[in-house]
Amino acid sequence: MVVKRFKQMNNVGREEFHEHMRRVGRLKHTNLLPLVAYYYRKEEKLLVHDFVPYGSLAVHLHSKFLIFFFLPLSHLGFIFSFSFFPIPITRVVGMGLKFAQAHHTMYLKDNG
């Protein structure tokens, strides 16, 4: 479980917060974590989600740490690459797409 604390929402009233959480709880999308629980107190508000391995989207988009990726090659298996330089994940995805286009094979994964 992951608990997200909101400290800067002290001006939000109890009913407004509960209504907003009910709306958030009804959202269904493959790219959104379902809300497991929430907690209201005047001083703090908490949201509880299931844990997701490999970090958040923000971490992947803005990380300046080690990035690990692989490129599938039919005759060589996999090439594993480590990068110690800041590479935005969008650039890594772009490199993978260019590689796939060069070999005339696109691999698309359905998240549903």
UniProtKB/TrEMBL annotation:
Q: List, alphabetically, the InterPro entries matched.
A: Kinase-like_dom_sf (IPR011009), PRK1-6/SRF4-like (IPR046959), Ser-Thr/Tyr_kinase_cat_dom (IPR001245)
Q: What keywords tag this UniProt record? A: Membrane, Transmembrane, Transmembrane helix
Q: Name one Pfam family in it.
A: PK_Tyr_Ser-Thr
Occurrences of domain Serine-threonine/tyrosine-protein kinase catalytic (ranges): 2-97
List the molecular function annotations (GO) for this entry: protein kinase activity
TM stretches of this protein: 65-87
Write down the superkingdom of origin. Answer: Eukaryota
PANTHER family in the record: LEUCINE-RICH REPEAT RECEPTOR-LIKE PROTEIN KINASE PXC1, POLLEN RECEPTOR-LIKE KINASE 1
What's the protein name?
Serine-threonine/tyrosine-protein kinase catalytic domain-containing protein
Q: What organism is recorded for this protein?
A: Linum tenue
**What are the leading ranks of the lineage?**
Eukaryota, Viridiplantae, Streptophyta, Embryophyta, Tracheophyta
